[in-house]
Amino acid sequence: GKLQPPLNTCWGFFRELLKEKVIVTPGTFFDINPEKRRQHCRYETFVRLSYGPSFKEIQRGLDGIQRVIEKFRQDGGSQRRSSSGLGYTAE
Length: 91
Description:
By secondary structure, the protein is α+β, with helices and mostly antiparallel strands. It contains two helices and four strands. The strands form two sheets. A two-stranded antiparallel sheet has the order 1-2. Strands 3-4 form a two-stranded antiparallel sheet. The longest helix has 20 residues, at 55-74. The N and C termini lie close together (10 Å).
């Protein structure tokens, strides 16, 4: 689903999650584009999560992600919860 700005880019999502003390890796770090042949970044709307920490830490991070999404949802976006519980789609 689509998220409203600033959550709709990897950098905006990253910055908002930092406020919740959650770190993700912006997708632009994983875009292989030798010699800058492509004009756009394919992963501008993606982030990566690490599954190396303990389950408790992963759950804390997912809770932070959900808080950020809920905050922007309550602040005026017409977003609704997807069937997965974490993702949101525009209405």
